[in-house]
Amino acid sequence: MKKSSPEVAVLTCAELAREALAVLLGRYGLGIEWVPPDSAIPGSYWGDSEAGLIGDCLFLRDDTPVHSALHEACHYICMDEERRGRLDTDAGGECDEENGVCYLQILLADQLLPSVGRARLCADMDAWGYTFRLGSAQAWFTRDADDARMWLLQYGLIDREDRPLWRLR
């Protein structure tokens, strides 16, 4: 994943009610720890303002992009129990799991305030530099993500109508 230039305006966690994100991710047993401004984010694989993940705790700052928070949370949801038990910074996983993570983060965006939703999240993913062979997150999600959807169905993370089932892999 390449990151875009800093002048690209993506939705940040400061623009959400903290409780909305905490309630959503709490359904998966994932806690959130808010890091003070300008402090390093523990467990952040990419550094800068990117979300961090250690054990069952997601580390965020107000300037953390919402797509980053959801992406790391979905890694926690999609990884197996063994990896979750030793999780510290690098979520790992294979390509199929990574695709499942991207698909699920788009679905979870619909569960947040109206200011998020899948269209906004896809636009932010594109602005930040996620790359998909069809050229955009939205095109991938609607026309090329059947494998990701099937992976999530196989592990019981979503139902046939693409609704999250609020369980971990």
Report on the structure:
This protein has 169 residues and is mainly alpha-helical. It has one domain (13-154). Helix content is 41%, strand content 7%. It is built from seven helices and three strands; from the N terminus they run αβββαααααα. The protein has helices spanning 18-26, 66-78, 81-85, 95-109, 117-128, 137-143, 146-154; strands at 31-34, 52-54, 57-60. α2 crosses α4 (95-109) and α4 (95-109) packs across α7 (146-154). The longest helix has 15 residues, at 95-109. It is globular.
Short descriptors:
single chain, 169 residues, mainly alpha, three-stranded mixed sheet, globular, disordered N terminus
Overall spatial form: globular
Distance between the termini: 24 Å
* Overall number of domains: 1
Rg, nearest Å: 15 Å
Note the topology:
Elements: H1 18-26, E1 31-34, E2 52-54, E3 57-60, H2 66-78, H3 81-85, H4 95-109, H5 117-128, H6 137-143, H7 146-154
Parallel strand pairs: 1-3
Antiparallel strand pairs: 2-3
In short:
The chain is mainly α and 169 residues long. It has one domain (13-154).
